[in-house]
Each structure stands twice: as structure tokens, then as C-alpha cells.
User: Which sequence fits this backbone?
């Protein structure tokens, strides 16, 4: 790397996203892959702060809708884990087991490091929930889970330890549980798109692609710049599949004991952060919505020798004033102003304030917005108003851009022969398909083998009724599905 | 339990703290001990919310003082763990080991579930830190750690999985590292006492009671209502003990490579929560500082049949207004107002608002403060001002009460024969002692065996110079130490 390359960042995100993503993770100090356990990465400040902020936003949204916050142990005894058959079959290959402590002493019972917490939580739920008065019972925890992934791991996207929220809700009736699934999808949109600017579509997943133990799975798909789909929050209608083995019964109004209905919901915050980086970044580096940025404002002194002190003083005065409400720093390093600009643009700082001799004299400030790359001069007394306005405008701007790109990526196609070209060029294909029930699986397998793409399911936000034949088998098409390459 | 006992809570906290603590954990839904893995407990909403709030306060304090936020993997490869001899000896008996995944496949290398993260973090630090320009390097993570405790576990106080912050800071010089130790102690006081109202004293621990691998350990002691001491945040000067095995070197200004100096600091948030409950609670139940309360305001409709709707509407209007800034609920259950009062007092809600017919007519509200048990009438328009004022006053009141009690618990004693009576009656004994270096250990062992109490070390906030003889061996006393029973 030349000196200049060390300072500037210039990778074509659209043409070579994989390179862009890997390079920005290192350069912006987001993740470090050099930790000496395979599949585990260190998340540095440029991940740890946005992930914390994203957690706070999501938690607030869940609490507003009546979810209690809980903290469960991260270990699950083997006997709990084995109770639901499909669940254990689905997760068993990925579980890390704790078998010893100290200097090789064996534990009485093997403990699973939770790959997800159904089997930890529902046992306690069955103790807590006694009657219809205790329902609905809605709760979440913010935690990490561990999975010994066999697929290739990628930082933030697929790691052997990742950070998520899991909400587990219990209802007296199937109807209420299904309403919760709707609410969960709504919450995902409110948070991912409205607050983070990441567009998504919710699909009802085909029966062969369900969460192990679920009756039905609904999952959000987002788009990466290389045209591949990344799954984001999913919500699962578990029916009574878990309440039976975990004996989660309640006394109903009619005096009868009944098994409860359960839903579970899992937004993976560290993975959503991957989407955030990928969705908003550009060839110069990171771009953040103002509220999520690890550093929100950078102040750059444009120093002229004999005015040095006055300029530094002004910078410090601004920092002091702004640091009550924002994450703000002054760059006092010995780099040139230009190099500082490049550096903090790469790091995605949403607002830059430049303070030089001219600004001092005019009681003005030069301000720069990372999302638009526009630089303007404002009066110093307008600064707070400018920041507040920018906060809103940046999010609006990022949402428009990302939504526009996302919408354009969907194409309707009628012939199987044309699907490959479309998905290879980064499109999500909308097409006619026989069924997302069991009988459609063989058609999905053909798509998977021939095109290396996947049937994501049927849209939840629209009723789409096909007229015509399944693109694969030629039988009557009962559904409109979406097909794409995936992470 | 009778119906009345279910509603009221009345356990003498001072006389029978152990019973009080156990009962309030269950009754207020703080912790559930019925999880089926020994030493692991479920933390319910009444723990999960205050713990989150306490984390936010502590993290803000650390970030203000220049700590970067990081997220490290929770697993540590065995080879890292074995590098520092004293450290591994100290922690090895307590480590949980992951040895398998899936259906009994062996991992290539055993992984420790971190009991603390020195050996995870310093390996990466040695990659990141290259020159004096990278120093000081100050970072923290908020995480959980696991220890297979052999001592009896108690929820929040000593569990096999607990929640803490660990800050690990690296410096070019010993002097700067020792300054960091001072800063860490200052931060603990700022947070634990100033924000949470928990009094503490920092002691330099005797050499025989150090963190494994440390040169010196400084730890805060707080007092429980039964007169036993509970250790809270500790900060450790590690010197170069870890930088050598982890090869944490930097190029200094003089062009020479040098080993760095490290400090580490560990406030255990879940344990601090135990102190919070124990310090402020009373015979009626929990008492919280306003900012940390899981529920800050409870609204109770005092319903008169024909005015029902108007009263409920007013309650909802108040909730809507207040819920922007506070955690607030209306109790719409079918209990009597009196039972509701008892219940929410037991749960420690700092402010209660009563809305009845009279209040409606007068545009007033009856408000109650949990810390003083005082009930007054205010005009509705004064509500926000009342809440803000109460927030400050409650904390001030709780601090005064707890500080007063703490100060009174310390007694100066000159005769070994009198120490037992004092510590048995819940006092912390201040006395003359030969030395907290290695040569004093045999005297400390005598105190431990005869009195079942422990030498906590020498005060950090005062220089105390003894004139006279060691209370145990009668040799010259070089230090003033404090002795107490401990958790």
C-alpha cells in the first residue's frame, strides 16, 4: 500500500462488493479476523457502538409493544435441549457442548451453549404461566448465541458467535399468536427500514425452509450490493409444537387446561449491522444514519500558524457544547486537513465541521455532510439547528436511495431459462411456482441445482395470485414466489 | 401463605437479611432459582431493566474518560489461557471448557468460556499496539463471564454466570498505569455512590488476596445489611506481568522497544445490583433511585362507579404524556386500591399517582414517594416539576441514609479479643496490623481461623499511620487495616 492508499479508500462497492466489505471491515476498524479461534471475530469500536445503538432502538420498539426484558443463562442442559424432536434435529449439528470444568473434571450433565433459547425459556415459562390471566406473556432477551456453522463464516454475516434479540411470546389462542407474527413483521419494518434505512420484504418461507420446530416461518430478506439476498429478522409461529413437550399449559376461562400457542422472533443485530454497512456505504467508505454513527461529528481545525491557539480553542468550545448530546471529536493529529477529510469520510462520520481563520473571523463554520458529500458555510449560531435538520435529512436521503435500488432489483420472469441470467446479474426474480408446501420442494431443488438460487417464499405484504403454470414443472401455479442467490 | 401475606410484604431486613433477600428476589420477580442448571439463575424483568440502566450509566462514565467500546469472543483457546502462570493457576479450577460440538465431535482445541478476558484481549492488543502513538490504549467490553464457583452460589451475589464490564488499559509508563488505577477508583465512586447511592471504601488488598497475575489489587468494599462485606469493583495494576507473555511491546519515543504496562478493572453489574437492592430496600420491599427503577411511576385509578370512565381517561392521558420520558404504567387490575399500593410499594416504584373523583374535580393529583412513604396533593400542572424534583431528592435521600449507616458501621478496636464480637454484630473493624505484604499473611490466617473474618487491606482514600503494635502478633504495626465478615 502506498502512503496515499493508506489514507484514501477507493473500492468500487457495486462492482466488487466482496473486496469492498473485507477492506472496509479492516480499514475502518470494524472487525478483526485475526482472533485465534476459527469463526470467531473481534468486533472493534466501529462495530461495538452502532450495535449498541441498534440494540437500544430495537429494544425500545419491543418494550413499547409490551415485551418484558429478561436475562436467561447461556447454557442449556442436554435434557431440555432434547425435548422437541425437529428442533433438536435442526440444531444438534451446530451446538457447542460444555463437558468439563477445572482441570478436566467432567460435568454431571453436558451443557449446550445456547444456539437459540426456546429450550431454556419454555421450561421456565411453564412454571410462570398458570392461567389465562398470565396471558399474553411477551418477553425478549438481548444476548449472543453460538453455532458451530459448517458454512463458510464471514464477519457480522455468519459467525460462530453472534449478537441478537430473541422474543418469545405466549398466547391463549392461535389467532392471537398469528397476530403477533404480524406485529413482529411490522416492528422489523419500523426499525430496519424506518430507523436504519434498510429495505426489506417479508416472505412466508417454503415448508422445507422453516425454523426447526416451527409450524410456519416468516422471514425478511434484504439485498446486498452484489445482488445476493441476506435473511434478516424472522418470526416463527410455533403453534403448540413446543408447549406440548415443555408442558406449557394454562387454565382457560372455561376452567379447562389447554396448551398455549407460542411465537418466537429473532432479529440478529450484528447481522443487521452488516446490512447497514453494505446498504449505505459507497466507494469512499462507510455512510451512517446520524443516530447510529460511532462518531457523529468530527471537528477539523484548519490551522494557520499564528492563529493556532484561537482555532484550537474554538474547536474545543464546540466539542464541549456538542458532546452533551452527540458523539463528537476533534482531530488534533498531525495529518493535513485533506488527509483528515479522507480518513473521517472513510469512517462514515455523518457531519464534519471545519474551523479555520476565515470561519473564526466571520463567526461561521464550514460544514460537510457525508451522505451528500456537500459542503456549505453556516453561521455558528445555526449549528445546532443544522445538526438536527441533518439528522432527519440524512435518514430520509439514505432511505430514498436504498428503497429505490431495492425496488429496481425485482424483476418478473416467466421462463426458467431466463432466471439464471437475472439472478446472476443481481436481480431478485418474481415468478410463478407450483407450491411452497411440501409438494413444491422438488421444483425448488431443480432451481437450486441448475441455478444455484433459492425459492424465498411468498410475499406477506401483498396477496399475489398467479394465473398460469409453475416455471419449473409446468403444473398449475398456486403461488407467486421470489428467487435469488443468498448469503 | 394467606391472601394478605401474598399482597403485603413485611420482613425485617435488618434482623433477618438473608430471608429478606431471598423472599424479595422471588416476590418482586427479580431472580428465579428454578432453572435446572446448578449455579445459574434466570434474571427477570425486575433485574433485567435496572441492570441495563446501570450498564448505560457505567459505560457513559468509562467512555467519557476515553475508553473505546469493544466486543470480544466469549471463548478463549486453551493455548492463550495458559500463557500467564499465576493467572492460569488462579482461574484454572473455575473454568468451564467447551470440548465438543454437534453429535459428540471433538474440537481441535479445547475452548475456555472466559472467566475474565485478559488472555483473549491482550493477544489482539499486541497486534494493534505498535508504537507510543497508539498509547494510552483504553477499552472496555460489557459482557458476561462464567466461573465454576466452588463456594455456595447466591443469585446476583455469586453465580456461575454473571454480568460485568471489564476495562483493559495499556500505557507506556508505570506512572500512567498507576494514575489509571486512581481514575478507576474515582469512576467507581462517581457511579456507585453518586448515581446509585451505594457507599464504598477502596482498599489496597493484601498481597495474599490479589487478582491472579496482578502486581497490586485495589478493590471496593460495600456493606450488606447483615454486616457482611461484599466486594464491588476492583482495579488491578498488572505491571508488565501480562505484556511479557503476550508480547505486548511498543516502539517508544527513544526508538527502543519496551513492554507496556497494563491495568484492568471489573465492575460486576449484576453484583452491584445485589448491593443496590440490599442497601436501599426496607421492610416493605424494594426502594430504587428513580433513574434505575424498572417501573418509575405507577398510576392507580381510585374508581367510583359512575365516574369510572372519566378517571380511566385521565389515567391514560397521564400515562401517554409521561411515557415519552419515563417508565410508567396504570394498574387496571381488579385488586382494591390498598392492595395495589402494597404491591407496587413492594416492587419499589418510586412515585405513585392516585387519580380519583376528588382529584378530577380539583384538577389535582395525589402523589406518593416510596423512599419517604409520604403522600401529598399537587396540582396536575405541577406533575412534571414534581417528578423531576423527586428524581433528585430521592437519590439525595437514599445517599444520606446509606452513607450514614455505612459510616456508623466502622469501629476502631485495639484488642484481638474484641474483634469477634464487633464483626459478629455487623461491624467493620479498623485496627493496627503488622503488614499487608507477604509477612502479614500468618496473622491474617489467625484472624480467619479464630474469627472467621478477613483482612481487607489498607485504605486508599486516607493515609493512616499506626502507632503501636499488630493486634495479632504484637510486632510493630506498619499499617491500619479493616477486618470484616464477607460474602
Assistant:
Amino acid at each position: 500500500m502506498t502512503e496515499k492508499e493508506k489514507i484514501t479508500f477507493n473500492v468500487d462497492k457495486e462492482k466488487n462488493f466482496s473486496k469492498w466489505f473485507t477492506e472496509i471491515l479492516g480499514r475502518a476498524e470494524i472487525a478483526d479476523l485475526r482472533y485465534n479461534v476459527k469463526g470467531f471475530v473481534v468486533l472493534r469500536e466501529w462495530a461495538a457502538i452502532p450495535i449498541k445503538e441498534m440494540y437500544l432502538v430495537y429494544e425500545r420498539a419491543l418494550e413499547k409493544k409490551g415485551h418484558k426484558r429478561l436475562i436467561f443463562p447461556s447454557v442449556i442442559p442436554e435434557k431440555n435441549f432434547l425435548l422437541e424432536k425437529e428442533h433438536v434435529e435442526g440444531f444438534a449439528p451446530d451446538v457447542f457442548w460444555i463437558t468439563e470444568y477445572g482441570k478436566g473434571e467432567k460435568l454431571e450433565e453436558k451443557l449446550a451453549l445456547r444456539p437459540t433459547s426456546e429450550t431454556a425459556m419454555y421450561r421456565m415459562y411453564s412454571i410462570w404461566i398458570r392461567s389465562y390471566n398470565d396471558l399474553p406473556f411477551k418477553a425478549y432477551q438481548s444476548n449472543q448465541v453460538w453455532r458451530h456453522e459448517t458454512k463458510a463464516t464471514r464477519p457480522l454475516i455468519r459467525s460462530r458467535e453472534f449478537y441478537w434479540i430473541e422474543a418469545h411470546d405466549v398466547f391463549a389462542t392461535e389467532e392471537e399468536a398469528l397476530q403477533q407474527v404480524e406485529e413482529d413483521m411490522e416492528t422489523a419494518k419500523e426499525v430496519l427500514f424506518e430507523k436504519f434505512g434498510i429495505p426489506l420484504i417479508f416472505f412466508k418461507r417454503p415448508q422445507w425452509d422453516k425454523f426447526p420446530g416451527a409450524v410456519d416461518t416468516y422471514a425478511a430478506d434484504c439485498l446486498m450490493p452484489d445482488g445476493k439476498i441476506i435473511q434478516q429478522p424472522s418470526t416463527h409461529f410455533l403453534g403448540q409444537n413446543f408447549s406440548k413437550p415443555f408442558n406449557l399449559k394454562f387454565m382457560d376461562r372455561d376452567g379447562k387446561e389447554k396448551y398455549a400457542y407460542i411465537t418466537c422472533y429473532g432479529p440478529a443485530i450484528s447481522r443487521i449491522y452488516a446490512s447497514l454497512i453494505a446498504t449505505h456505504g459507497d466507494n469512499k467508505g462507510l455512510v451512517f444514519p446520524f443516530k447510529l454513527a460511532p462518531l457523529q461529528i468530527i471537528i477539523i481545525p484548519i490551522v494557520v500558524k499564528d492563529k493556532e491557539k484561537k482555532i484550537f480553542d474554538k474547536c474545543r468550545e464546540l466539542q464541549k457544547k456538542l458532546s452533551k448530546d452527540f458523539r463528537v471529536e476533534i482531530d488534533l493529529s498531525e495529518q493535513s486537513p485533506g488527509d483528515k477529510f479522507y480518513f473521517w469520510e472513510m469512517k462514515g462520520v455523518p457531519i464534519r465541521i471545519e474551523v479555520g481563520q476565515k470561519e473564526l473571523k466571520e463567526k461561521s463554520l464550514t460544514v460537510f455532510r457525508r451522505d451528500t458529500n456537500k459542503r456549505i458555510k453556516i453561521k455558528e449560531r445555526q449549528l445546532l439547528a443544522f445538526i438536527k435538520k441533518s439528522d432527519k435529512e440524512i435518514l430520509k436521503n439514505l432511505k430514498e436511495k436504498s428503497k429505490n435500488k431495492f425496488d429496481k432489483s425485482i424483476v418478473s420472469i416467466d421462463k426458467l431459462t431466463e432466471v439464471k441470467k437475472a439472478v446472476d446479474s443481481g436481480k431478485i426474480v418474481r415468478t410463478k411456482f407450483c407450491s411452497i408446501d411440501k409438494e413444491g420442494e422438488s421444483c425448488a431443488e431443480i432451481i437450486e441445482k441448475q441455478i444455484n438460487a433459492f425459492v424465498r417464499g411468498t410475499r406477506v405484504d401483498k396477496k399475489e395470485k398467479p394465473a398460469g403454470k409453475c416455471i419449473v414443472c409446468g403444473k398449475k401455479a398456486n403461488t407467486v414466489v421470489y428467487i435469488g442467490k443468498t448469503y
Notes: The mean pLDDT of chain A is 96.
